[in-house]
Amino acid sequence: MKNFKKHFPLLEQYTYLNTAASGLMSENLLEFRHEHDLDFLIGGSLFRDKRDSLFLKVRKSVGDLFGCAPNLVALTPNFSFGFNTLLETIDRSKKILLLKNDYPSVNWAVESRGFKVCHAEIDENLEENIAEVVAREKPDIFAFSLVQYINGIKIDPDFLLKLKNENPNLLFFADGTQYCGTEKFDFEASALDVLGASAYKWLNAGYDNGFFLFKEHMQQEIAPASLEVKALQGRNKPHQGSFIGKFEPGHLDTLNFGSLKTAIDLLKQAGIDETEARIKDLAALAKARLAEKEMLEPAVLNRKLHSSIFNIKGDDKLFQKLRSNRIICSQRGEGIRLSFHYFNTEEDLEHLLKQL
């Protein structure tokens, strides 16, 4: 795999282990944004007239990367916007399964609306815990993050397929914000009914852009009619009155969604297969080396499947030491969160281990 550090100037100054908090801006993205604003500067409404063709290209780019038909891709400013819109379509009598201490944008959005709720524990037995609660509680919907934001625990996709096969009427709503952009994924072949994600982390697309993917049958399952503002569905909006149009009221931002396509183009240039292999190799090495230093919790150590996010034992003193040595990471939960992306290297890991 090519060295992609050169595309992200910040990496010349820092060891960046913080993609789980925020991705980086690439030079490609900066160039696109300059050209975009220049076109708007000299084009005005003539530039605006081209926006619909841009959004069609963005939906196709997202759909091609994640295995979803473009007409079932909704462009949203972030995961929270799309997920809250989705929940407004769900009858409050439905029972929803959540994971304890999952990302607040998932759990709080459900719990604050008064749904019937049941929970499964996040530990080394995550999949067994979920299966047990499903069998006992018979939920209608399972809403969850594919990768946990605090410690990087990743749910087994094969388990989800098995669970779906055993419970075909159970709807799966997933947050892929800490997942999308880390490995090859085929939404249509997955167990998921809905996948949403913000794109400012692992896709390195900047802020205020995200997407939601829907299986075809969801058009009959949900109908957010109350959220469609017809006065804002202009004659130039190609999906006026459509299922996806209901998740995109008003005007979309050409700068931010153009940024999403630009970021995906760079990921495709890197190669999604190569990206996946690079991340998995580095994550496996990091897990082994951090385990040697006894810095990982049992719930992570005892699982075969894991992401490239780790939460290590460490207080504020250690966190400040890392920052003073130009290692950028985050304090999350009771420790320090580290995250490795395709632009990271073994040298980054060695620099971290030296400071630890």
Automatic annotation (TrEMBL):
Q: Which Gene3D superfamilies match?
A: Aspartate Aminotransferase, domain 1 (3.90.1150.10), Type I PLP-dependent aspartate aminotransferase-like (Major domain) (3.40.640.10)
Q: Which InterPro entries match?
A: Aminotrans_V_dom, PyrdxlP-dep_Trfase, PyrdxlP-dep_Trfase_major, PyrdxlP-dep_Trfase_small
Note the Pfam families from the entry: Aminotran_5
GO MF term list? transaminase activity
Which intervals hold domain Aminotransferase class V?
58-352
**What keyword terms does UniProt attach to this protein?**
Aminotransferase, Pyridoxal phosphate, Transferase
Q: Keyword check for Zinc, yes or no.
A: no
> Looking at the record's lineage, which domain of life comes first?
Bacteria
State what protein this is by name.
Answer: Aminotransferase class V-fold PLP-dependent enzyme
Q: Does the keyword Transferase apply?
A: yes
